[in-house]
């Protein structure tokens, strides 16, 4: 369970992956022009540049969405580490120590089953 993170950090991770993927696609597309592969290289460059630009725009959208969610998230103090963390939805994880948090007692995994 160490690989799980808070929802805001998960959105930021996907935004970062799309940014890096889009940049990588653009670099691969540039190889068609740099190594002078003729008309096939130009077609490859245009195709990969277009797909990379779409990935970068998707990344921008995800970062914007994560930022909007972050501004409206509930800030609570983590009972485990004591740091303030943002919570989205009924359950979330601490941004620092990854403890499962819940505002609703019936969704609380730390509550004792009586």
Automatic annotation (TrEMBL):
InterPro entries linked to this entry: UPF0295
Keywords: Cell membrane, Membrane, Transmembrane, Transmembrane helix
Highest taxon above the source species: Bacteria
Record bears the keyword Membrane: yes
Pfam family, one: DUF2614
Transmembrane regions: 12-37, 43-66
Protein name: Uncharacterized protein
The organism of origin for this protein: Paenibacillus rigui
